[in-house]
Specification:
The complex is a heterodimer of chains A (736) and B (169). Helix content of chain A is 60%, strand content 15%. With 736 residues, chain A is of the alpha+beta class. The N terminus and C terminus of chain A are likely disordered. Chain B is mainly beta and 169 residues long. Chain B has one domain. Chains A and B meet through α3, α5, β3 and α8 of A and β6 and α3 of B.
Chain lengths: 736, 169
C-alpha cells in the first residue's frame, strides 16, 4: 500500500462520509417515523408497510456500506501509519460499544417485553370463557329451535288432520295458539299457500333456502338459526305436513320466530368478541413479526447511525492531533508557517492556538537570527574588504600562534601563497616556504618575548634581486572570544632607500659645497707657485715643482670632478618631461664612446619601440653612466663586448646593457645601489645610485644581474608613453 | 369458445373459462378449482372473512399502439363463517347465500357467472380479442396483522395466475 494514498483525497472522503451519514440518518429518521406512525394507523400501515420495510432496509444497507467504507478507510490509515488513526480506532470502538451495549440491551428487553405482552393477551381462561360463551349462546338457540321445532310438529300434525281447504284458517289459529311470529304454508314447489303473521312488516314471507327444501323432501324437519341482515337472528323451522289424500301435493310448514332482541344482541356481542379474539390469536405471529421487524430495523438504523457517527466524531476529535503532528513535522523541517487553528473552545483549540503562537515565536526568533547572521556576514565582508584593500600585509594568528588568515597584500608583498599555511605555526612555515624562514623565526621570537602588549621590529628578508626590508608590528589581541595575535607589516625597502638617498644627497651637497670652496684657491695657488717659482729654481727643482704642481692641479681637477658628481647627485633640478625615443637617445650617447669602445658595442634596438616620457638630459646621464660602468668593467677583458638592447616587455620599455666584463662582486650585489659602493679603483660609487634615482623618478625600475660565463647585465624598465598617450587621445576623441 | 386448461396454480386454478354471447350481451362463465390452505381454513373457521377478487379483462391487441381495453370487470366475493349459527355465507355486495358446509360454499364460489361483461355490439366479428381472468384471495381486505403475516407467505397468498385465451366472435 502506498503510504501517501490516504493523504490524497482526505477532504473528499470525509465529505463523502459526512454527507452520506447526513443523508442516511435523515432518510432513516423519516422512514422510522413513518414506520412508527404507520404502526398506529391501520390503513396507512397496510398500504405502506412493505414500502417502508424496503425503504428502511435500503437505508440500513446504505448505512452498512457507509460504515464499511469508513472501516476500510480507517484500516488503510492504520496500515499507512497516519498519526491519530489509532486514537480514532479506539474512540470508534468506545463509541460503538457505548452505542451497541445499551441498544442491544434495550432491544432484547423490548423484544422480550413485546413477546410477553402479546402472549399475555391470549390466556387459556379467556379462551375458554369465550368458547363457553359461544357454546352457551348456541345451546340456548338450539333449545329455542327445538322448542320451535316441537311447536312446528304439533302444528303440522294438527294441519295434517284437516283438509287442505281449512288450512289457511287453521294456520292462523294454530300460530296464535303456539305464539309463533310468522307461519307460512308452502306447496312442495315453494308456492305460498297460506301465510299468517302477527306483524305487519312481514307481509312478504321469507322463502326457505334450497337446502332446506331438499331436506323437507326427505320428510325431515329442518331447523336453523339464521342471521338475516337488518333483522337480526331468526329461528326457522320447516316441517313437512302430511296430507291424507295422495292427490294433494305435499306441503311444508315454515315457522319463523325472531330471537328475542336482548338475547340476540348478547349473542352477537359474544360472537363478535369471540371472532375478534380468534382473529387476534391467529394474527399474533404476524403481529410479533411486524413489531419485531420494526424494532429490529429501528435498532439496526440506530446502531449503524451511531457507529457511523462514531467514526465522524472520532475523526473530528483526532483531527487536531493530525494538525499538530503535521505542524510539528513542518517545524522540524524548518517551515514555520501557521497551521489552521482548530475552531474549538476546548483544550484542543487552546493547544493548537498555543502551537501556532509557538511557531510564530520560533519564526520570529529565526528571522532575528538570520538578520543577525546577515549583519555579521556583512561586517565580516566589510572587514575582509578593508583587509584586502589594505596596502599593509596582515597576518592573523590564534592563541597557539597558528596562522588563521592572511590578506592579499601580505601574499603580494612576500610573494607567497598563504592558503596552504593556514593552521600551521610559523615554526613550520619553513618546510613549505623556505623564503619565510627568517620572518617566521622573528615573529615567533617576538611573540615569545613580549607575552603582553605590542612589539615592533624590522626584518630583512633576502631576495634574489636584493633585500626586502619589512617593518613588523605585532599585537596580542585582548583575551576574549576571539583571542590571538595580529602581525601587520609594511615593505619599507623603498622608504628606507629613499631616506638613505635623501641623507646621502644632503651629505653630498654639503660636502660639495664645503670642498669646492677651497679647491679653487688650492689650484690657483699651485698654478701661481708654478708660475712664480718655475724660473727661479734649478731645473731639477723646477721639474719637481712642475710635476708636483701638475699633480696638485690634476688632483684638484679630479676632486672638482668628484665634487661636481656629488653636487649633481645632491641637486634636484626640475626635470623637463617630454616624449623621447630611447633608441635615438642611446645612439646619441654612443657617439661619444665610438672612439674609446669602437667595434665592441653591439646594438640590438627594437625599431618599434614606443616613446617614453622623461627628461632627455637625465636619461642621457643614465645611459652614460651605464656605458661608463661597462667600459670600466671591460678594462681587463681581452675581447670586450657590450650589447645594448631595447624592447617592450610587460607594457614597459626595456633597455639592457650587457657586458662580458668582471661583473658584480657577489657580496656587493645587494648594496649595489647604495652610494660609495664600488669595485672600481677610483670610482665614486655614485654611478648606479644616480641611475637608480633617475629611473625611479621616471617611474621605472633598475635590476642588476651577473651573466654566465662572465659579465653583468643592467636592465632598465620605463613606462611606455604610448599607453598614456592613447588613453589621452581616446578621451579627447570622446569629448569631440 | 372454451379455453385451454390453465397450468396448475397454487390453491386456485382456472378449470374452464368462456365468454358466452347471449341476447343481452356477453357474460362470463368460469369454473375454478379452489383449495384453501390449512391456514386459511383455520382463519375462516375462527370467523375471519376471506375476500376473493375476480378480475376480468378483455383487450384488443394492437401492434401499432397500446392495446385497446374493450371491457373489464371486477367482482368481490366475501366468504365468512358465523360461529353462532355455524353457517358459511358467501356475500356478493348486499346479496348473500348461506351454506351449511364449507364444500357447499366453495362449490358455489367455483362456478361463477358474471353477466353483462359487454354489450352485444361491443365485439366486432372477425377480430381477435384476448381475454384474461384470475381469481385470487384479496389479502388487502384481511385484518391488519394477517397482512403482515401474508407478506411473502405462501400460506396466505392464494390465487390463480392470469388465465388468457383468445376470443373471436
Amino acid at each position: 500500500m502506498n503510504p501517501g494514498a490516504p493523504k490524497i483525497r482526505p477532504a473528499l472522503s470525509s465529505a463523502v462520509v459526512r454527507y452520506g451519514l447526513i443523508l442516511c440518518v435523515g432518510l432513516g429518521a423519516i422512514a422510522l417515523f413513518l414506520l412508527a406512525t404507520a404502526s398506529t394507523d391501520p390503513a396507512l400501515f397496510t398500504e405502506l408497510y412493505r414500502l417502508l420495510l424496503v425503504l428502511n432496509g435500503t437505508v440500513a444497507v446504505m448505512l452498512t456500506a457507509l460504515v464499511l467504507y469508513q472501516l476500510f478507510t480507517l484500516r488503510r490509515k492504520l496500515k499507512a501509519g497516519v498519526f491519530g488513526s489509532k486514537l480514532t480506532l479506539r474512540l470508534v470502538l468506545l463509541f460503538a460499544l457505548m452505542a451497541v451495549l445499551p441498544g442491544a440491551l434495550l432491544y432484547g428487553m423490548s423484544v422480550q417485553f413485546l413477546a410477553r405482552s402479546i402472549e399475555s393477551w391470549f390466556e387459556v381462561r379467556v379462551d375458554k370463557a369465550l368458547e363457553s360463551g359461544i357454546n352457551l349462546s348456541r345451546g340456548m338457540l338450539d333449545n329455542m329451535l327445538q322448542d320451535l321445532a316441537a311447536k312446528g310438529d304439533t302444528m303440522a300434525l294438527a294441519l295434517s288432520t284437516r283438509p287442505p281447504a281449512e288450512h289457511f284458517a287453521a294456520l292462523n289459529a294454530l300460530r296464535e295458539q303456539s305464539g309463533v311470529q310468522e307461519a307460512t304454508l308452502f306447496s312442495g314447489r315453494g308456492r305460498v299457500l297460506a301465510f299468517s303473521s302477527n306483524e305487519s312488516t312481514g307481509l312478504i314471507p321469507e322463502p326457505p333456502g334450497a337446502s332446506a327444501l331438499r331436506q323437507i323432501r326427505l320428510q325431515k324437519t329442518y331447523s336453523a338459526v339464521e342471521a338475516i341482515p337488518e333483522k337480526g337472528l331468526y329461528l326457522r323451522v320447516l316441517v313437512p305436513v302430511h296430507v291424507l289424500s295422495l292427490a294433494d301435493e305435499p306441503r311444508v310448514l315454515q315457522l319463523l320466530q325472531p330471537v328475542p332482541q336482548q338475547l340476540a344482541r348478547d349473542a352477537e356481542v359474544v360472537r363478535s368478541g369471540y371472532q375478534e379474539y380468534q382473529e387476534l390469536t391467529l394474527s399474533r405471529r404476524g403481529l410479533k413479526r411486524a413489531y419485531g421487524l420494526t424494532l429490529t430495523l429501528t435498532l439496526l438504523l440506530a446502531l449503524l447511525s451511531a457507529v457511523a457517527l462514531a467514526f465522524v466524531l472520532s475523526d473530528r476529535l483526532s483531527a487536531p492531533l493530525g494538525v499538530l503532528v503535521e505542524g510539528t513535522r513542518a517545524v522540524a523541517q524548518g517551515d514555520f508557517s501557521q497551521r489552521a487553528a482548530v475552531a474549538s473552545s476546548d483544550e484542543l483549540g487552546v493547544l493548537t492556538q498555543s502551537f501556532n503562537s509557538m511557531t510564530l515565536q520560533l519564526a520570529e526568533a529565526r528571522a532575528q537570527a538570520e538578520r543577525h547572521q546577515a549583519a555579521q556576514a556583512q561586517a565580516r565582508a566589510y572587514l575582509e574588504s578593508i583587509l584586502a584593500n589594505l596596502s599593509a600585509g596582515v597576518l592573523a594568528f590564534d592563541e597557539a600562534l597558528h596562522l588563521r588568515a592572511a590578506n592579499p597584500s601580505a601574499s603580494g608583498m612576500l610573494g607567497v601563497d598563504f592558503a596552504p599555511l593556514i593552521g600551521s605555526a610559523p615554526a613550520r612555515w619553513a618546510e613549505r616556504e623556505p623564503g619565510l624562514t627568517e620572518l617566521a623565526r622573528q615573529i615567533q621570537a617576538a611573540f615569545e618575548r613580549s607575552d603582553r602588549g605590542e612589539w615592533e621590529q624590522q626584518v630583512e628578508r633576502p631576495l634574489p634581486g636584493g633585500t626586502q626590508l619589512l617593518l613588523l608590528r605585532g599585537t596580542r589581541l585582548p583575551q576574549g572570544a576571539e583571542g590571538g595575535c595580529v602581525v601587520v607589516f609594511d615593505d619599507i625597502t623603498h622608504l628606507a632607500e629613499a631616506q638613505r638617498a635623501a641623507a646621502w644627497a644632503e651629505v653630498a651637497r654639503r660636502l660639495a659645497h664645503e670642498i669646492r670652496n677651497p679647491l679653487t684657491p688650492i689650484q690657483l695657488s699651485a698654478e701661481r707657485l708654478q708660475l712664480k717659482l718655475a724660473g727661479k729654481l734649478a731645473d731639477a727643482d723646477a721639474e719637481v715643482l712642475a710635476r708636483s704642481t701638475q699633480t696638485i692641479v690634476n688632483q684638484v681637477a679630479a676632486l672638482k670632478g668628484m665634487v661636481d658628481a656629488f653636487s649633481q647627485y645632491g641637486r634636484t633640478p626640475e626635470p623637463s618631461m617630454r616624449e623621447l625615443d630611447l633608441n635615438a637617445l642611446t645612439r646619441e650617447v654612443l657617439t661619444l664612446y665610438e672612439a674609446s669602445l669602437g667595434t665592441s658595442v653591439r646594438l640590438d634596438l627594437s625599431p618599434e619601440l614606443p616613446p617614453v616620457v622623461g627628461d632627455a638630459a637625465e636619461l642621457r646621464q643614465v645611459i652614460h653612466n651605464l656605458l661608463q660602468n661597462s667600459q670600466d668593467a671591460l678594462a681587463d677583458t681581452l675581447e670586450p663586448r657590450i650589447t645594448i638592447a631595447s624592447g617592450v616587455a610587460d607594457g614597459t620599455v626595456q633597455l639592457t646593457v650587457t657586458d662580458n666584463g668582471c661583473g658584480f662582486a657577489e657580496h656587493l650585489m645587494q648594496r649595489a645601489f647604495e652610494p660609495y659602493v664600488t669595485t672600481k679603483p677610483g670610482g665614486t660609487g655614485l654611478g648606479l645610485v644616480i641611475v637608480k634615482k633617475i629611473v625611479e623618478e621616471h617611474g621605472g625600475t633598475v635590476a642588476i644581474a651577473n651573466v654566465a660565463p662572465r659579465g653583468a647585465r643592467v636592465t632598465l624598465r620605463l613606462p611606455a608613453a604610448a599607453a598614456q598617450d592613447v588613453s589621452r587621445k581616446s578621451a579627447a576623441q570622446a569629448k569631440v | 369458445m372454451a379455453a385451454p386448461i390453465a397450468a396448475h396454480a397454487d390453491g386456485i386454478e382456472v378449470r374452464k373459462a368462456a365468454l358466452v354471447a347471449a341476447e343481452d350481451g356477453y357474460f362470463l362463465e368460469a369454473n375454478f378449482d379452489i383449495t384453501l390452505t390449512h391456514t386459511l381454513e383455520e382463519a375462516l373457521s375462527k370467523g375471519v372473512p376471506l375476500y376473493f377478487l375476480l378480475e376480468f379483462e378483455l383487450i384488443r391487441p394492437r401492434w401499432y399502439w397500446f392495446n385497446e381495453k374493450v371491457a373489464n370487470a371486477q367482482q368481490q366475493y366475501r366468504l365468512s363463517f358465523n360461529a353462532l349459527t355455524r353457517r358459511y355465507r358467501v356475500s356478493l355486495g348486499t346479496l348473500y347465500q348461506n351454506f351449511e358446509s364449507l364444500p357447499e360454499a366453495m362449490g358455489f364460489l367455483s362456478r361463477i357467472r358474471l353477466p353483462e361483461i359487454a354489450e352485444s355490439g361491443a365485439l366486432s366479428k372477425g377480430t381477435s380479442y384476448t381475454a384474461a381472468l384470475r381469481l385470487r384471495l384479496d389479502t388487502s381486505q384481511l385484518p391488519r396483522p394477517f397482512q403482515i403475516s401474508a407478506v411473502g407467505s405462501r400460506e396466505w397468498s392464494v390465487g390463480s395466475d392470469w388465465h388468457r385465451w383468445t376470443v373471436s366472435p
